[in-house]
Write a structure and sequence with these properties.
- The protein has a seven-stranded mixed β-sheet with strand order 1-7-6-5-4-2-3, with helices on both faces. Strands 8-9-12-11-10 form a five-stranded mixed β-sheet.
- The protein is α/β, with parallel strands linked by helices and about 425 residues long.
- Mean pLDDT is about 95; it is low at about 235-240.
- The N and C termini lie far apart (about 55 Å).
- It folds into two domains: about 10-275, Aspartate Aminotransferase, domain 2, CATH 3.40.640.10; about 275-410, Alpha-Beta Complex (Aspartate Aminotransferase, domain 1).
- Helix 4 crosses helix 9 and helix 13 packs across helix 15 (about 400-410).
- The chain is built from 15 helices and twelve strands.
- Helix 7 links the parallel strand 4 and strand 5 (about 180-185).
- Helices cover about 35% and strands about 15% of the residues.
- It binds pyridoxal-5'-phosphate.
- Pyridoxal-5'-phosphate binds near residues 86, 114, 156, 188 and 207.
Length: about 425
Amino acid sequence: MGNTEWGFSTEQVHAGIRPDGGHGARITPVYLSNGFLFDDFEQARERFAGETEGYYYTRYGNPTIAAVERKLAGLEHGADALAVASGQAALTIAFLTLLQQGDHVVSARSIYEGTRGLLREDFARFGITATFVKDPNDADSLRDAFRPNTRAVFIESIPNPRNDVPDLELVSAIAHEHGVPVIVDNTLGTPFHVRPIEHGADLVVHSTSKFLSGHGSAIGGAIVDSESEYLKDARADGHTVTNETFTQKARSLAGRFGPTLSPFNAFLLQHGIETLSLRMRQQSGNALEIARWLEASPAVASVDYSGLESNAHHANAERYLRGGYGAVFAFTLKGGLPAAQALINQVTLWSRMTHLGDVRSLILHPASTTHIHLTADELAEIGIGPGTIRVSVGIEDAADLIADLEQALAAPAA
Ligand SMILES: Cc1ncc(COP(=O)(O)O)c(C=O)c1O
């Protein structure tokens, strides 16, 4: 895939790149072709049997998608990868490849609400249940969550939006004690800040819609496979080829369920990844500067950013994150809901938007948007109050972003 001797910026440009057959195109072109011709009867049979490399139908593989899969596997120092239509599709396919009716997942409580809803509501309808652990860094409470039917553990490398960074090695060790794989959503960490596989994770899941693509223009997702021993009993084995890797099983399942990444989005993703380190350095650097400024502001009650020395999760952030602490975090205003409303309404440079990892800075009020269906108790449990604001910091100049927050905080509530 890649070359583990390379520095990150070299890898992000060169990992997974193969000269394109025939025309010598430097960048794998967009192959907007649903199907691929077979030379003869025998080649058609071989492709369907999985006996030779090559493509037959884009829902099962495509050269543009394959180029970005190789790049992602290389950057995460994994063995293989599957790209799909969205981050939610990646999570769904990862879980469904590992699980069947009657199985159980142990998950951190502090995760993206879409994933929690998927586990808690949608999978529950099909007999797959989940236990959400408030503090997965507490070994006893994590161990207590396991049941005889537990088949996977799920965490986020930088939880959205609380930044309560998990102890990746502790969580992986406890999962492996129970013989089950760990899935890490590395959307907010990105391989620039952390490679979960190096700390024991078995699968890494991404919403590539965010930092990897970077420009807010291409929804996509991916699963990176470590091919570890804990993935050997993956459940999705309802077809004829045996001894398959996790990715081969997941690719078959994705072919059946159908969340295919558009080759055009794969091409945009490939472009985005080539500048990931430049954007992450700037965005995470800006985020630290803004978090420090907010921490010193008299209008702010608390800042949930793991890069701050005062943050309860700073030690884990220092241990696992390189080159910065990410660019998504939450802070809470002393003035509660009226102050939050005023801030959101008064910003002019920040975009009011539910998205993350864009080159543009984004701002949102979780309690009235992404977390609107939660009860007051549930919100309190995950530290989201009426005055909590989530930001995703972009590549703009930090001074301009701070000046906009300053004027918005100073403006009288409407
Ligand atoms: C951490 C995390 N994982 C997964 C997703 C889902 O990704 P997508 O929107 O690409 O389906 C999101 C979306 O916000 C996210 O923040």
